[in-house]
Write a structure and sequence with these properties.
By secondary structure, the chain is an alpha+beta fold. Helices cover about 25% and strands about 25% of the residues. The strands form two sheets. A four-stranded mixed sheet has the order 1-6-4-5, with helices on one face. Strands 2-3 form a two-stranded antiparallel sheet. Strand 2 and strand 3 form a beta hairpin. It is extended. About 15% of the residues are buried.
Amino acid sequence: MITLILPYPVSANRYWQTRVIKPKGGKFYQAMTYVSAEAKAFKDLVHKLAMAAGVRAPITGRVAISYTLHPHCPQDALRRAKRDPVGWEDTVQCMDLDNAQKVLLDSLKGVVIDDDKWVRKISAERGAPVTGGKLVVTITPISPVPDMTTQEQGDLLGALV
């Protein structure tokens, strides 16, 4: 099991960028989609933090990922808490969990996990606001399920006596 505390991720809306280009000698314009510089910087930082945490090679095979996204705590947090002690955290701006998930999986790929195709279970939640925001992720290897075809099946209908 590996637990990493990462900075607040880049929004999926800023992760990919698209521009329209006209190829040399071409008649038609083409859309080109690429990973933004901001996304590359986030992935590089995740790699450095994983190495500092002792990750030397990606986990191969099935994994479960659990993460908690903590939004940035606003300057007026105390005032919000006085106004609404129970629900003030709901007023804090935070990216959607599914946007954070795609960025997280892309940044872990090839560094902490072999490939995001091996993710078999995902658990996500929004945490309490903290200064600067953060993303706490836990990656757990999962043992493969035993092959059920090799196990003998019982007499389900009572046909065998």
